[in-house]
What does this fold into?
Amino acid sequence: MSPLPDYRPQRLSLGFLEKEILHIIWELGSVTVKDVHECILADPKRRLTSASVTNILNRLTTKGWLACNKENRNYRWRPLVSQQEAQILQAYEQLHQFLAVGNPDVVAAFADSLDQDSVEQFEAIARAVAEA
It folds into this structure.
């Protein structure tokens, strides 16, 4: 089981385009605005200006997901959190929101709607929590 990462972005919530750009960065490792812009425009149905890409990269930096460095005359962004760490942090946040309901009857109310795979996942989680 992977531990909770030491570093955590200041804001975990991300919009659709922020998530898409973050996935591009995880794939490429380190990017310029041009790198991201070209990836998005590879889909002929997409239209996005490089200024919009810059704005989103800056927003992800402010939220604590990216670091930005100036190399020569270009800015380069790199992730501060790996894709696996992001999944762990988001699962942790969702679990806390789920548990914040506080009333076991309310939380258990949806149990009747679970399929067998979901029940097995819950049982596996319960075993892991018990072992921890």
Observations:
- The mean pLDDT is 88.
- The helical segments are 16-28, 33-41, 50-62, 83-99, 104-108, 116-131.
- Strands lie at 66-71, 74-79.
- The two ends are 10 Å apart (CA to CA).
